[in-house]
């Protein structure tokens, strides 16, 4: 990647141009670049010192953002002991360019009795920790999609953390003619969104309230899948409204022996509807190959390839939530019933 080769130059340029920190922050969402930054010990030391001593608020925000992506400040964040107790029903994640419309949405939500967290005061201090705390204390995150939101490193970090913490995400469009792409499209996957420019405001709010009710209702019918402590795979939730037995109990313990039909039963049994369509002709051995391939290759490359394949085969954008859930289930299946390598 060209960005990888440019990192040393960007690091050197930080001595003269503060804006370069924002460029490094944007690049640091890539795992390969994260590793390269971590390996530069002198720059890492510089970042940690500046995070404590800098008096330029914008510069502090960029440095905190870089360190956040490198998991320096949040990898060991304590989680609430009372998991189901939330201070807020909703957090609104937005770019301040769309503040007027977001304020209207906020007012309507408050009128309807929702407890809503939103930053109208342009947070100061350690904004990353404040953002994380707000997400952790909220049940549902409304993502206000716009061009400026997609360009903002802070908004990207906010949306990513909401996804990592498995919060209910409801995307809405707040800018005319805007269509999400890139990282934001991958994050929202196949989630339904409300377009506040397509409908009049009150009608759009009706649709938003409907989505909020769906999110609240589904909360009573889900169970989390617990990952291993050392895994970084984001886990979605699985519906348990169906009385069917878990696919892992009724199928052969060795995935390699699964037929195409059994693979479909397993995917649908875990509500991975899009993955079942995408993997129509796959047997158990194919699942193992796919699981291995997604781990061995660079994340962005995998997402690009799967996105192309999904659009070509089923004319749908790949759901990052289903993909993450699929990989988590494969890891869980291997822990429970270790399979023989499909070599």
TrEMBL record:
SUPFAM superfamilies: SAM/Pointed domain (SSF47769), Toll/Interleukin receptor TIR domain (SSF52200)
Protein name listed in UniProt: TIR domain-containing protein
GO biological process: signal transduction
Domain TIR: 86-216
Listed InterPro entries: SAM/pointed_sf (IPR013761), TIR_dom (IPR000157), Toll_tir_struct_dom_sf (IPR035897)
């Amino acid at each position: 990647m060209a960005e990888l080769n440019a990192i040393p130059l960007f690091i050197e340029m930080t001595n003269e141009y503060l804006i370069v920190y924002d460029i490094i922050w944007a690049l640091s969402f890539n795992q390969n670049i994260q590793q390269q930054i971590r390996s530069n010990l002198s720059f890492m030391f510089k970042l940690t010192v500046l995070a404590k001593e800098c008096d330029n608020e914008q510069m502090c925000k960029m440095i905190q953002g870089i360190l956040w992506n490198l998991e320096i400040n949040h990898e060991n964040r304590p989680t609430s002991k009372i998991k189901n107790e939330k201070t807020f029903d909703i957090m609104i994640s937005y770019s301040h360019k769309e503040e007027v419309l977001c304020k209207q949405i906020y007012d309507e939500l408050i009128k309807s009795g929702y407890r809503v967290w939103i930053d109208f005061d342009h947070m100061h201090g350690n904004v990353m920790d404040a953002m994380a705390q707000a997400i952790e204390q909220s049940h549902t995150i409304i993502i206000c999609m716009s061009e400026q939101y997609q360009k903002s490193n802070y908004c990207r970090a906010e949306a990513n953390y909401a996804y990592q913490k498995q919060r209910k995400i409801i995307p809405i469009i707040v800018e005319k003619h805007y269509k999400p792409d890139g990282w934001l499209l991958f994050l929202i996957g196949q989630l339904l969104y409300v377009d506040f420019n397509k409908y009049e405001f009150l009608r759009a709010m009706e649709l938003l309230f409907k989505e909020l009710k769906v999110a609240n209702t589904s909360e009573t019918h889900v169970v989390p899948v617990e990952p291993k402590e050392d895994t970084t795979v984001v886990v979605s939730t699985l519906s348990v409204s169906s009385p069917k037995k878990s696919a892992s109990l009724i199928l052969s313990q060795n995935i390699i022996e699964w037929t195409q039909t059994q693979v479909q039963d397993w995917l649908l049994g875990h509500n991975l509807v899009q993955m079942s369509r995408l993997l129509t002709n796959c047997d158990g051995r194919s699942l193992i190959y796919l699981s291995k391939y997604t781990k061995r290759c660079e994340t962005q490359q995998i997402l690009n390839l799967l996105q192309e394949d999904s659009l070509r085969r089923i004319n749908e954008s790949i759901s990052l939530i289903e993909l993450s859930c699929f990989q988590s289930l494969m890891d869980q299946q291997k822990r429970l019933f270790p399979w023989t390598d499909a070599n």
